[in-house]
Design goal:
With 259 residues, the chain is α/β, with parallel strands linked by helices. Helices cover 38% and strands 16% of the residues. The longest helix has 28 residues.
């Protein structure tokens, strides 16, 4: 064998080795890290009594409609650069109160609500949301939203999302998220202990409310990035999750690939 042939063979062997290494890395990256047997995961593998879902940004994508409505209100009020956008997950009244004088709050809330009720374009079901909700028994699922009841119903209808029997809106509690009241109310309506429930949320305020209620938390990337979500488990979308029914509740399983 000549020197050139020997060199060619060596290069080919290195390339083949590199390809095998790359394949092994791809395989390893596709396999999720196992949950240590000696340490129970706060969400995965744990049996929960109920699942409490946020709506906007978690089950349905209404971001474009929400932003349009609030921007139109801000333009009508002449805020200009003072308005930097809404804070997803916070009740509308709280956001309005940060921007206007006390005597303008009621009229502003009415106008924002009017704009939001009228704008149902581009509202869609988020990946995996309908399947995850449908996998749960009626007595173990609820929607907990900062919308009022009319807006909640209109957005679910616009998206074509089938609502569960238990829906808690901003009309149902004195305090909204990030206070724990909405999730405590939902758990109570289901006849469950909130500490045995998991909250599924896309916003920091909602996750804070879930933690305050004693619930485990799942953060869904969308309106906020993963590093902004303080949750027991963060997923890129709900189609990364699957629910298994057990005799005493439900268990979340993390899928290696979205459905």
């Amino acid at each position: 064998m000549t020197t050139s042939e020997n060199s060619a063979g060596t290069i080919g062997e290195r390339m083949a080795g590199a390809d095998i290494e790359a394949d092994l890395q791809n395989i390893l990256q596709a396999v999720p890290e196992p949950v240590p047997e000696t340490e129970a995961h706060a969400v995965l593998g744990r049996v929960f009594q109920g699942v409490l879902f946020d709506m906007d940004g978690t089950l349905v994508d209404s971001t474009k409609a929400v932003n349009r409505s609030w921007q139109q209100w801000a333009d009508e009020m002449g805020f200009g650069a003072l308005f930097s956008g809404i804070q997803h997950g916070r009740p509308a009244r709280e956001m309005v109160a940060d921007l206007v004088s006390p005597e303008q709050v009621e009229s502003s809330i009415l106008r924002v609500n009017e704009l939001e009720l009228a704008d149902t374009d581009d509202i869609t079901i988020l990946p995996g949301a309908a399947e995850l909700m449908a996998a749960l028994p009626e007595d173990r699922r609820a929607i907990v939203t900062s919308c009022d009841s009319a807006l909640c119903r209109i957005r679910l209808d616009a998206a074509g999302f089938s609502a569960p029997a238990t829906v808690v809106t901003i009309n149902d509690t004195v305090k909204g998220k990030p206070a724990p009241d909405p999730f405590l109310e939902a758990a109570d309506r289901l006849g469950l202990d909130a500490r045995q429930c998991v909250v599924v949320e896309d916003a920091p305020a909602g996750l804070a409310a879930g933690r305050a209620a004693g619930c485990a938390t799942i953060g869904v990337v969308g309106t906020h990035s993963a590093d902004e979500l303080d949750a027991d488990l963060v997923v890129t979308s709900l189609d990364r999750l699957r629910i298994e029914l057990h005799d005493h509740g439900v268990v979340f399983v993390l899928q290696t690939q979205p459905r």
